[in-house]
């Protein structure tokens, strides 16, 4: 009987995997040039990259609250391919321009200057940065607003802080 109870608890525990893992992020193969091409082929605006590390409490909070919200998942999946990126990763990666890095850590530090997490960057389908957000957003609404800031093209005209103030005055 104990074995059945323990087995059932294990199975149920395995089923409670946070939905963000399956729903928000796409599976990355470490080749962002190829992933940008897939985004283009799927009619997406670009690629969203969530730079994170395992011991980051702010990353965990974003993944366990904001990135599990159905409207967030729907909005970002509609407009972007979304990938997690471990800034301490040891696997080789290929950047948007085809540059090969020996590790994710090397690319994060040298190319994107990511040293603290989370850092969220939206890239167009050519790998050019459209917007960068350092730190966690405070609410799901702010995260969605940042997405709308990029999708609307306002990132070309002003920084996100000014856009956010303008939206608050409406």
Description of the structure:
- The chain has 170 residues and is of the alpha+beta class.
- It has 8 helices and 6 strands, in the order H-H-H-E-H-H-E-E-E-H-E-E-H-H.
- It has helices at residues 2-15, 19-23, 32-41, 57-64, 70-79, 104-111, 140-151, 160-168; strands spanning 46-52, 80-86, 93-94, 100-101, 119-124, 129-134.
- The chain has a 4-stranded mixed beta sheet with strand order 2-1-5-6. A two-stranded antiparallel sheet has the order 3-4.
- The longest helix is centred in the first third of the chain and has 14 residues, at 2-15.
- The chain is globular, with a radius of gyration of 18 Å.
- The termini are far apart.
Task: Give a quick summary of the entry.
This protein has 170 residues and is an alpha+beta fold. The chain has eight helices and six strands; from the N terminus they run H-H-H-E-H-H-E-E-E-H-E-E-H-H. The chain has a four-stranded mixed sheet with strand order 2-1-5-6.
Which labels suit this protein?
170 residues, alpha+beta, 4-stranded mixed sheet, two-stranded antiparallel ribbon
Largest sheet: 4 strands, mixed
What is the strand tally?
A: 6
Radius of gyration of CA atoms, rounded to a whole number: 18 Å
Order of helices and strands: HHHEHHEEEHEEHH
- Average pLDDT level: 88
For the biggest β-sheet, the strand order reads 2-1-5-6
Portion of residues in beta strands equals 15-25%
Topology:
Blueprint: H1 2-15, H2 19-23, H3 32-41, E1 46-52, H4 57-64, H5 70-79, E2 80-86, E3 93-94, E4 100-101, H6 104-111, E5 119-124, E6 129-134, H7 140-151, H8 160-168
Parallel strand pairs: 1-2
Antiparallel strand pairs: 1-5, 3-4, 5-6
Helix pairs in contact: 5-7
């Amino acid at each position: 009987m104990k074995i059945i109870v323990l087995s059932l608890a294990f199975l149920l525990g395995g089923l409670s995997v946070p939905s963000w893992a399956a729903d928000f992020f796409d599976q990355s193969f470490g080749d962002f040039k190829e992933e940008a091409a897939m985004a283009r082929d799927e009619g997406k605006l670009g690629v969203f990259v969530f730079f994170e590390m395992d011991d980051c409490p702010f990353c965990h909070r974003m993944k366990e609250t904001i990135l599990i919200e159905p409207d967030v998942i729907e909005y970002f999946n509609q407009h972007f391919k979304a990938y997690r990126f471990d800034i301490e990763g040891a696997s080789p990666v290929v950047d948007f321009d085809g540059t090969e890095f020996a590790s994710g850590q090397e690319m994060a530090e040298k190319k994107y200057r990511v040293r603290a997490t989370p850092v969220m960057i939206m890239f167009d389908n050519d790998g050019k940065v459209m917007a960068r957000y350092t730190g966690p957003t405070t609410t799901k609404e702010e995260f969605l607003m940042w997405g709308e800031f990029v999708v609307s093209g306002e990132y070309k005209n002003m920084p996100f802080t000014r856009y956010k103030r303008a939206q608050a005055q409406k």
